[in-house]
Each structure stands twice: as C-alpha cells, then as structure tokens.
Write a structure and sequence with these properties.
magnesium, metal-binding, 333 residues, alpha+beta, FAD:protein FMN transferase, ApbE, transferase activity
C-alpha cells in the first residue's frame, strides 16, 4: 500500500507561498523545465530545474555537475591525491592541516557522533573497508575484531588552532560517505540559488535537495519499498528542504540467509537488521544524511530519540517487519 503524506515545507516557504497568492511577490516569467543525468561519486546524479532561458538552465546544471565532481575529487577514498586520502595516509603519524571546508565537515561529523552516542562514526572505515559487496566478501571474526580496535570517534583529534586533524592510533582511517552526498547536494543547491534558480531538484543517489516548489505544486519524493525494486511505500510532498534515504537494499550480498549491507554499526562492525530503510527530512542534506544513517544504526526507538534532538527534522522508518513508522512531526501533519 502506498501512503501519501501531507506537504512538508519549512515555515519560510509557507510564508513565501502565502505572499505569492496574495499578490505581494511577483510570479516568475514563462520558461521551461530542464534536466540532466550523470554518474559521479559512484552514484546517479539527477538535476531538474526551471529556467527562463535554455542557456541559463545549461549553465546552472553545469554548475551542479562541477560541484559534484569537486566533492568527488576532494573526498573520494579511491583517489590517492584526494584530501581524504591524504588524511588517511598521514594523520596516524602526525597532525594534518586541512581546508576550512574539510575541517568544518569533520567537526560536524564529531558533533553527530556525540549526538548519536557513536552510532554515526566516520572512523567505521577501518571495518567498512573489509567488506566487498560485489564479490560477496565479509571479514571473519578475528579480522573484524582487530579492525574494531581502530574504530572510535574520540580518536579523531581536531585542533582548531592549527585547523588540523590527527588520529590517536596509527592505522585508523575515516570515510565521509556517511554524509558526503548530502554535503554535495547542499553545495549544488547553493550554486543554483546564487544563479537565481528558484525551482529545482538535485539528487545524488538516496540524497536529494529541493529548491522552492514545482511551479505551483510540491516536489514529490518517493520512499521505496525496500523489498520491491519498483514498489513505493510512501510519497513525500516537499518544498525547500533536503531528504535522505538509507536502506539495506542499496549495496548488499546474502550469505547463509544473512544480509550484509553497507550500513555498518561501528560498535559491532556488522550490518544492523532492526529496520529496512530510514528516510529523513531536514533543512539541509548533510543533516538529513547523517541522521538517516544514525537512525538506521540505532533502530526505531533510540533513533527517534536522537532525531528529536534536531529541530525541524522528521523521519519515515520501515522496520524489519515492513511496518511504517513516522516521527511525531509527520504524525502531526
């Protein structure tokens, strides 16, 4: 069964919509919709926007793709010259100076780690890299135990005076995959707004950012049925917000009836199984993605408690029995 939820929009968007209907703000001149798809950061990128002229639309979409490639070049763990690779290579031996952007991301990661009690932890990479989802490889207990000794967000030492990062133990490493795509769609949205785009949708895999509405109606974002690739569990009508979905169906393999997926509990090094998917709506993509990962690892009760600490965030959870659960903010709508 597909569920249609009421419109989710921030207060500022509601005020602007009322002003347009009252004739206090001008309506946009006639134009058209433009879109493009690409593959960056190992995921599908989609952009759809409204512009008065095709040249303006193409320039805006080019700006989005440039931002996606910039994030990939900076934070890919697979590129040896990326800033992330430099951190992982050197921070176990000495403090590594980083860019202002990277330092801010690391500080946000540590804040989410504290909020979640360690359920969100970018140092999980020490165990995450032991899995190969294409080849169906999972670590044995001894290998996993050794890697888990290198996991722990408190071992990521940030120094604001030198804007640097150091690891407490050599062999530690980090992965920003827990919210890099959310950060990317935030950057893309900022570029679009700077170019005067008022209606747009940008997605990077399960992370999306919507600007304005879809010219008189909300953007509609589907929550996939985690056990049917073409099924939709719920539809979210959205304006001016970000949405992130984390699911156990994105990258996984099964062995002896156990599903090993890419969402890892830093405390165990294994895949949590209490829920199948989590969708979070928030003001920005970085927050939405970090919270969707957090809630997935913590499970329904503890995850909703963590979510409640972030003003304006809401969630849709599909548990292991296929039941839908909504945060109080969505229930109130």
């Amino acid at each position: 069964m597909q569920l249609q939820l009421p419109l989710w929009r921030p207060q500022a968007a509601r005020d602007a919509a009322h002003a347009v209907r009252a004739g206090l703000l001008p309506r946009r001149a006639p134009g058209g919709w433009h879109s493009r798809d690409a593959a960056v950061m190992g995921t599908a990128i989609h952009v759809e926007l409204w512009a008065d002229r095709r040249a303006d639309a193409e320039a805006a979409i080019d700006a989005v793709m440039a931002e996606m490639h910039r994030i990939d070049l900076t934070y890919s763990p697979h590129k040896p010259d990326s800033e992330l690779s430099r951190i992982n290579r050197d921070a176990g031996r000495s403090a590594v100076p980083v860019s202002e952007e990277t330092y801010a991301l690391l500080a946000r990661a540590q804040a989410f780690a504290e909020l979640s009690g360690g359920a969100f932890d970018i140092s999980y990479a020490a165990v995450g890299r032991l899995y190969d989802y294409r080849r169906g490889i999972a670590p044995d207990d001894a290998t996993l135990a050794a890697a888990r000794s290198l996991v722990g967000w408190r071992g990521i030492e940030l120094d604001p005076a030198t804007r640097s990062v150091r690891f407490a133990r050599d062999g530690m490493c980090i992965d920003l995959g827990g919210f890099a795509k959310g950060h990317a769609v935030d950057g893309a949205a900022a570029r679009l707004k700077a170019l005067g785009i008022g209606h747009a949708y940008v997605s990077a895999g399960g992370d999306s950012r919507v600007i304005g509405d879809r010219r008189g109606r909300p953007w509609s974002v589907a929550v996939r049925d985690p056990r049917r690739a073409d099924g939709v569990a719920a539809l979210l009508p959205l304006e001016d917000c970000a949405v992130s979905t984390s699911g156990d169906y994105e990258r996984f393999f099964e062995r002896a009836g156990v599903r090993h997926h890419h969402l890892i509990d830093p405390a165990t090094g294994r895949s949590p199984r209490a829920v199948h998917s989590v969708t979070v709506i928030a003001d920005d993509g970085l927050t939405a993605e970090a919270l969707s990962k957090t809630l997935f690892v913590l499970g329904l009760e503890r995850g909703m408690a963590a979510l409640a600490q972030v003003p304006g965030a809401d969630a849709v959870v599909i548990d292991a029995q296929g039941r839908l659960h909504f945060s109080p903010g969505l229930q109130a709508r």
